[in-house]
Amino acid sequence: MRSIIVGAGAVGRHLCAQLSIEGHEVVLVDKDLQQVRRAERDFNIMAIEGNGASAKVLQEAQIEKADLFIAVTDIDEVNLIACILAKEFGVTRKIARVRNEEYLSSSSPLNEYRLGIDLIINPDQVMTNEILKISEISEAFEVVDLAKGEAVLVGYDIKEANPVCGISLADLKELKGLYDFVVVAIVRDGQTVIPRGGDQILPGDKLYIVVRRKDMAAVEELLSLRSKAPRKVFIIGGGDVGLRVARALESQKVEVYMVEADARRCELLADSLQHSVVLNFDGLDAHDLISEGIDTADLVIAVTESDTTNILSSLLAKHHGAKKSIIRISRPDFIPLLGKLGIDVALSARLVAANMILKFIRRGAITSAASLLGSDAEVVEFIVREKWPHVGRQLHSIEFPEGVNIGAVARRGEVIIPSGNTVLQAADRLIIFAIKDSIPLLERLMTQ
Hints:
The chain is α/β, with parallel strands linked by helices. It has 4 domains: 2-121, Rossmann fold; 132-222, Regulator of K+ conductance, C-terminal domain (Alpha-Beta Plaits, 2-Layer Sandwich); 231-323, Rossmann fold, CATH 3.40.50.720; 359-446, Alpha-Beta Plaits (2-Layer Sandwich). It has 15 helices and 22 strands. It has helices at residues 10-21, 33-42, 55-60, 76-88, 112-115, 123-135, 169-175, 216-222, 240-251, 263-272, 286-291, 307-319, 335-341, 349-361, 439-446, and strands at residues 2-6, 25-30, 46-49, 68-71, 93-97, 119-121, 140-146, 151-157, 181-188, 191-193, 206-212, 232-236, 255-259, 277-279, 299-302, 325-328, 345-347, 366-371, 377-383, 404-411, 414-416, 429-435. It has a 6-stranded parallel beta sheet with strand order 3-2-1-4-5-6, sandwiched between helices. It has a 6-stranded parallel beta sheet with strand order 14-13-12-15-16-17, sandwiched between helices. It is globular and about 60 Å long. The two termini are 18 Å apart.
């Protein structure tokens, strides 16, 4: 498949890396010559210097041969014009990233349907949804909905005092009783391990677990964890993401404190929010934060435009007693370092948007995907075809690639947490945790 990506920022680079690994013929277009040369050096792709909204430049990229066109520059109009040009050249699938909400409204004359664009992504809305999903499960650092929400993949940090430390996965399986779940991966010292029964859980491990949503509370109790929905939340930064999160939390009857340094923005926030307390001071002002009760906050969400402010304000809040922190960060390469500092969840808006794009464009055997922050792995879903040669066989008899773990099987509205004896049927939806390098081999197996 030939894919053209316009924009060599974090989203574009992430997509280049992933699609080239999966065997796509990738062409990257960007105005910045330095970014173009860097991309050519880092990835197995062709890169062209130029304006992605120029027909001449797109012809140089041989757009007439493209199957997929993705425009993810920082300028809405460039992305939209580029996609309109791609439509004129006959490209089948077109995706644009935009910030202006006007393009997202169904009543707008410039929405995706009228422009002939298959998917328009608003990064602020995607980030808001991710924050809200993680905020609901206080013990988790990552949450991915699977099987239409019936199952969930959850990431948990295992602290040193947790009584499950030292227990093998085989012993844990004996303890779990009526509630089924699968430990699909362990991230230990920055390395992702696909575990086996003899592997032990150690302090500092990050456990990725697939479980039925209805069984989450029971499984957390088994793991000596207990998630609670937040009752008191501080939001540092009153931009678009902060405002969206505050509105959503208000509707859930959460006590919200919005901290914003800009006085004019505070006036707009006060008019836009119904019950939240809007505070006009800097998110790094320890005295004001303490006087407003940051020490009793269940959750602090730092979403200013400054990585430094988000990191420091979260550390300050955690130091004074806040239970959990979620921050937005623009540099995804910093994410693995932040957990060691005490920040619970760090989200890159660009990577979250890239995950949504990957989920949309995978149309073959893969039906959805999510790259997991803090690991070199993805969770993917495959639909078992009727003519697949392994239909009717038990899982243990199928030679899945190394670095792959089956987390769940969705079958006719039911979610099955599988064992090696589970027999696959046509139309089963397999939820699979896989190291990224194993995904091309996995897709090859599933398309036999």
